[in-house]
TrEMBL record:
Start and end residues of each Amidase domain: 26-261
Name of the protein: Allophanate hydrolase
One of the Pfam families matching this protein, by short name: Amidase
Natural source organism: Stutzerimonas stutzeri
GO MF annotation terms: hydrolase activity
Length: 264
């Protein structure tokens, strides 16, 4: 499919405010595009169907972009993070279960107006850096499909890189968010442990696991972190962040100095 949507957060907000599109129209078109591409890239394990999307879309019809910071913003969820009523597999069919509640981060994002598009493919149990260790198919690189996507948050990186979602949730224990982001020309934000709740995430290593954001820009990653970095009593590693800032306290950087290593 050749249809391309500008899914940047500010662009979508402006489009909704101007009435040039609606969340319902956009999400259903993105869902169709994602389904068409899935046989080639194996991005999604589960794409929400029209019935599953309806509660999220209907809830927005009584709201406006001014009321919700992420009004109508489409996002994808790595399939080791719970979305209520949708199976969580961690890319292992024998392990699969259907959660009754959302992971804390998913609950936060939906409350802010974001709309989940589906659950994305991953290296099984989030152990791998290639994006090829999944019974749901190998994920292919968005830039060069003959190469792997990187993992383990493979499908999440593809959802953003292929223009199917404004942002995606992944996890990162030892590179699983940053590696596929780098290989697909994205920003992969792994925040300090405890800033974003991991309640409702299938653990790989509880003391190291972090939820990550995949975005097209650092500014968008910063926006999402500012909206979701909260103390969560359901996560024993969660912590308050009284020192949160966006970097403005340090003033403008006057100059950069780069070091280039030399071979002997």
């Amino acid at each position: 499919m050749t249809t391309h949507f500008d899914l940047r957060l500010d662009t979508l907000r402006n489009a909704y405010e101007a009435g040039t599109t609606t969340p319902r129209q956009l999400i259903l078109e993105l869902r169709a595009k994602a389904a068409a591409l899935n046989s080639e890239f194996n991005t999604f394990i589960h794409l929400l169907n029209a019935e599953e999307l309806e509660p999220y879309l209907a809830a927005l019809e009584s709201k406006t972009p001014a009321e919700l910071p992420l009004y109508g913003i489409p996002f994808a969820i790595k399939d080791n993070i719970d979305l209520a009523g949708i199976p969580t597999t961690a890319a292992c069919p024998a392990f699969a279960y259907t959660p009754e509640t959302n992971a804390t981060i998913v609950e936060q994002l939906i409350a802010l107006g974001a709309v989940p598009l589906g659950k994305t493919n991953l290296d099984q149990f989030a152990t791998g850096l290639n994006g090829t260790r999944s019974p749901y198919g190998e994920c292919r690189n968005s830039v060069h499909p003959d190469y792997p996507s990187g993992g383990s948050s493979a499908g999440s990186s593809l959802a953003v890189a292929l223009g199917l979602a404004s942002f995606a949730l992944g996890t990162d224990t030892a590179g699983s968010g940053r590696v596929p982001a780098a290989l697909n020309n994205l920003v992969g934000l792994k925040a300090s442990k405890g800033l974003i709740s991991t309640a409702g995430v299938v653990p790989a290593c509880r003391t190291l696991d972090c939820v990550t954001f995949f975005t097209a820009s650092a500014a968008e990653a910063s926006q999402l972190l500012a909206l979701t970095a909260r103390l969560d009593p359901h996560d024993e590693y969660s912590r308050a962040n009284p020192l949160w800032n966006d970097g403005s306290a340090f003033g403008r950087v006057k100059a950069f100095r780069f070091g280039v290593p030399k071979n002997p």
